[in-house]
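Hey, can you fold this?
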Amino acid sequence: MHACMQTTSTLEENMTSSQSLMVIGANLPNGSEIRPAYSILDMWPMPARYLNESIMLETDTGTRETNILDHDSNIFEQNYHYTYYWDKETGIQVYHAENATDVLNENQQMFSYSCKVELIDSSTGAVIPEFTGPVMLLTLIAITIPTVLLHRRKKLHI
């Protein structure tokens, strides 16, 4: 077993068609399709993926409603098991585990693996405050003042 590592990365994702499942729609009900069917290399069809259920997940920072997808995939005639948890309110992935037993690598050597990715703490992330009202007011002022000054300048020159 290897020691845990922390990393930071940036990911851009299309929530309706990406094969990655880092982000799904917020507040989706059980049974919602989160990704449509697709094909790997136009040779191996992958089925659409649907949410299984919602649970109340206990974490160190409290309880959060969580959507779950638990499914198996047959890729190149080998079985892989995947489990995903997303925060229901935001659609952000908070847990991902996958494993496979006795599958073949690219050199046709058999191996097994198990891995887990878990969001440990989201409290230090950037919080974007709601500035819609002040921004709109400042924008209106920024547009109005030059317009009034321009109109007044034209009146003085006439």
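Oh, and this one too while you're at it.
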Amino acid sequence: MTKARDISDKNGRRLVQLFEDILATLPTGVAALEARRTRDDRGTIVRLRPANAESAEFSAHVEDGYALVDVSFGRGATFELPWDADLPNNATFDTTLETVLAMCRAVIAGRCEDRLGFLGIRSTICVDEKRVFRMTDFFHPNLHPRVVRYGPYYPIIEV
């Protein structure tokens, strides 16, 4: 696995570090982290893979020199940040990373689902009551439309 210190691009390094920090907050064995360079060596891809088969994988991708981050989970659509999170076009990379963190925490808590339709997938991440992110990705045909509600990475006790 590639570590944050091994990434030459500043934004790629920061994205990997964010995922390493997230993994450090989880109980041991709950998830595994994978970070690697893109095939063309122009970007960084980071994945958080849960041990629970009922949970959704969460991943993010950033190209070298850019502040745009693609986020996806489970089988679903790809969210392009800052636009698909309703952030301003001039949002800083720090603001984008805060949104990635919030989305990742929601996926870890199991607050996400994919609606697989005949022609596409409608993905939803519920960060909180005010922030619910939805994205539709067409041209993903499914013979058996259904809703996939993902579970939490581990039992989370709300206090």
